[in-house]
Amino acid sequence: MLLMQSCPFCKMDPKKSKNSSPRIKVIQKLYNTLMNPDALIEYPKNQYKKFIKDVVTGTLERSDFIEEKIKSFLINDINLVKTDKLLKIILFAAIFELMFKPNTPKKVIIKEYLLASEHFLEKIQIGYLNAILDKISKELRKDD
Question: Per CATH, is 20-36+47-140 categorized as 1.10.10.10?
Fold first, then answer.
């Protein structure tokens, strides 16, 4: 039982993860990079390989900029120091997409990350993530 709690990916349903959304793979790769900073990120052949690589690389390269945006728009809503690592990873990846993938509607980005987060987070955390993404998306994508 102790092993199950320490593994954030143990909640994943193997049937669902077989043809999983590219956002699940983004979250897994970002988490792996956080836990193993010196490890090489591999991108196996996949129909979403370019998208996954773009989001993972972009999120990592722009994490300081994303953090500044979070602090400027959500100063009273979130404390990044105390925020769960997985929640923070999902938040950063979603914000990267909101900022740098303008062809994807904000509702699609939010919905996809909320669905992906069901594999990693508790229900209350998903509700919090939804509120945070909704609030920041209104600031980042006023025209959308």
Answer: no
Are 6 and 31 spatial neighbours (Cβ–Cβ below 8 Å)?
no
Sequence-distant (≥ 6) Cβ neighbours of residue 91 within 8 angstroms: 70, 83, 129, 132, 133
Place of tokens 């955390």: 125
pLDDT per residue as tens digits for the range 83-106: 889 999 999 999 999 999 999 999
Closest CA to 116 of 25, 42, 3: 25
Domain ranges across the chain: 20-36+47-140
Distance CA 67, CA 15 (A): 34
